[in-house]
């Protein structure tokens, strides 16, 4: 079964760092791009960036470049999203999803990781 | 890159048909057949419903169909059911962003 399993919810303070994960299974992880999507409370979906785990090529949305870092470790079939200094405005649900480049769509999604940043 | 424009809400009675629009520009929706649609029930992972404007993934009901005319793509849900009540998002390839993709603003579908 193809699935993406994300790390558990996190509660952090402003200024702290954080790295959340997305582990793929049931398919050849290096061969499919992984996208990260943000959903702030009561808001819509936003593309953050996308990574090719096979060669770590990364593309960021202009809105998120410099704000987060996307990475992947193909040896353990895991992609990551990290922050060096969280802000309250980073409070959101974060989803990873497998991207099919042939049809330019996200065909399999993780369950989401809720990040809460509060003092 | 601004989000693609969708109506905030659309409603319909059971067994009726509804259509959700997704308006962009020639740099995204109008220029490429790379529009996809996602269904999102609160608290669950989004689900791909349509890709490449009008193609349904395996397992998606044929009550869901997609089309495009000019800079506007549309998702039609026929034979509306209670379980169709959810948020729906379009997404398109775009040349206006270094990322290459943009979501729509999202539409809340209510089954009356």
Record keyword descriptors for this entry.
heterodimer, A: 119 residues, mainly beta, 7-stranded mixed sheet, 4-stranded antiparallel sheet, 54% strand, B: 112 residues, 6-stranded mixed sheet, 3-stranded antiparallel sheet, 9 strands, 0% helix, globular
Question: Nutshell version of this structure?
Answer:
The complex is a heterodimer of chains A (119) and B (112). With 119 residues, chain A is an all-beta fold. Chain A has strands spanning 3-6, 10-12, 18-25, 33-39, 45-52, 57-60, 69-73, 78-83, 92-100, 105-109, 113-117.
Would you mind describing this structure in some detail?
The complex is a heterodimer of chains A (119) and B (112). Chain A is mainly beta. Chain A is built from no helices and eleven strands. In chain A, a hairpin with a 4-residue loop joins strand 7 and strand 8. The model of chain B has no long low-confidence stretch (mean pLDDT 95). The interface between A and B is medium-sized, with 25 and 29 residues.
Fraction of residues in β-strands of chain A: over 45%
Percent range for β-strand residues of chain B:
35-45%
Specify Rg of chain A, calculated over alpha carbons: 14 Å
Amino-to-carboxy terminus distance of chain B:
35 Å
* Helix/strand structural class of chain A: mainly beta
Q: Major beta sheet of chain B, specifics?
A: 6 strands, mixed
Tell me the series of helices and strands of chain B, N- to C-terminal: EEEEEEEEE
Question: Would you report the number of β strands of chain B?
Answer: 9
- Helical proportion of chain A? under 10%
């Amino acid at each position: 079964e193809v699935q993406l399993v994300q790390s558990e919810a996190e509660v952090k303070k402003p200024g702290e760092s954080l790295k959340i994960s997305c582990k793929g299974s049931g398919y050849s992880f290096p061969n499919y791009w992984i996208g990260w999507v943000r959903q702030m409370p009561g808001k819509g979906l936003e593309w953050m960036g996308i990574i090719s785990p096979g060669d770590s090529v990364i593309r960021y949305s202009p809105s998120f470049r410099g704000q987060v870092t996307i990475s992947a470790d193909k040896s353990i079939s895991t992609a990551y999203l990290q922050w060096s200094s969280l802000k309250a405005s980073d409070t959101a649900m974060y989803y990873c999803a497998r991207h099919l480049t042939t049809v330019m769509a996200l065909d399999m999604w993780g369950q989401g990781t809720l990040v809460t940043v509060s003092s | 890159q601004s989000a693609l424009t969708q109506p905030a809400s659309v409603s319909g009675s059971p067994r009726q048909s509804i259509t959700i629009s997704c308006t962009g520009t020639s740099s995204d929706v109008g220029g490429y057949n790379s529009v996809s649609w996602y269904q999102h029930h609160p608290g669950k992972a989004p689900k791909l419903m349509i890709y490449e404007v009008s193609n349904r993934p395996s397992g998606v009901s044929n009550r869901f169909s997609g089309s495009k005319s000019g800079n506007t793509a549309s998702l039609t849900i026929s034979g509306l059911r209670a379980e169709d009540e959810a948020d729906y998002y379009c997404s398109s390839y775009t040349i206006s962003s270094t990322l290459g993709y943009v979501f729509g603003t999202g539409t809340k579908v209510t089954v009356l």
